[in-house]
Amino acid sequence: MILVTGGAGFIGSNFVLDWLAQPDDATPNPEPLINLDALTYAGNLENLAGLKGDARHIFVHGSIGDVDLVTRLLAEHQPRAVINFAAESHVDRSIHGPEDFIQTNIVGTFHLLEAVRSYWQDLDSERKDHFRFLHVSTDEVYGSLAKDDPAFAETNRYEPNSPYSASKAASDHLVRAYHHTYGLPVLTTNCSNNYGPYHFPEKLIPLVIHNALAGKPLPIYGDGQQIRDWLYVKDHCSAIRRVLEAGRVGETYNVGGWNEKPNLDVVHTLCAILDELQPRADGRPYKDQITYVTDRLGHDRRYAINASKIERELGWKPVETFETGIRKTIQWYLEHRGWVQNVTSGAYRQWMDKNYGVNA
Ligand code: NAD
Ligand code: TYD
User: Fold this and answer.
1) In terms of CATH architecture, what is 2-262+296-346?
2) Where do the structural domains in the chain lie, given as residue ranges?
3) pTM here?
4) 164 in catalytic set
């Protein structure tokens, strides 16, 4: 049994689906999992509709900040690992309202660590040795790179620039301290920008796909020359499984796909593939919808991940290139117009209430 937090969000739901779907080298016999999620606007149980009735998926509606609830879940289910995805994750929202980021990412992670520490301390010595707390973090904690700087290595200084990245950096420090001080067997992954199925259409890639198909403007912040390093979400999930099974306790692992792209190139690629797969009714190219808008405050110029350590130590490599992953992603969005419609209209909240009786 493992406990996953934030498993109704974008990466968490992909992780849950992949974990239960695939016997592979890393998880030959997938264990059941408890999925603890507060169902904020970003949590969507429709992502997990395929698991309805599957006894291996135990969904619990609640917060990582609820120490009594987490303590009860740990005592009842005795997991061998906790994987912490739960977070507020959108930089723009953190600029407009940082408070939730402090509460969830810092205070919430602290409460989760407290509950896990007291559970772990009472385990017998064999289970104590094998227990893992895996914290899912971001490359944004390292700050922003200049054009010719080398990619982020695990040894880079933390220099977070947004309330989001500062709150994630703080949570990474707490996780590190719980290992150093109490001996909690922790692992941390710092991953670059993900894309793929079930991505909330507030982030660049799903937003552009959705707006293009809806005939709306495709907003480019500033000059569109900011660089992100893109990784297909399922490759991130396989990296997390690999780190969980073989990562060295107390270590951090950078995860990335060696796919640095300026935002404008990403948007042009999305437009070109959409022109091919779902041409506009008027025959015009989707790139006509590109609109330059005011830049994000404090916008980080470039992120790039050096993923050598995870490749060298754990033999992990991404399966998808940007070209294969982005095509799969667009195809998924074209085949799941109803999912996007429910998310953008807010209908997914009623869907969850009807199907799960949870009205967050
Ligand atoms: P997301 O916003 O899509 O999902 C977050 C999930 O956490 C939601 O289901 C939400 O309901 C849940 N949640 C929020 N507060 C909670 C709380 N207090 N208790 C329990 N659940 C709570 O985020 P995501 O993109 O899936 O990111 C998951 C994790 O991966 C985050 O920690 C994020 O920092 C990290 N990360 C994301 C990316 C990316 O590109 N999306 C890249 C690197 C790392
Ligand atoms: P985003 O998907 O929000 O991820 P992050 O800020 O965590 O990297 O944004 C990716 C990049 O795209 C970032 O440089 C901001 C830019 N961007 C736009 O230009 N337009 C948009 O509408 C959005 C949402 C993002």
Assistant:
1) 3-Layer(aba) Sandwich (3.40)
2) 2-262+296-346
3) 0.97
4) yes
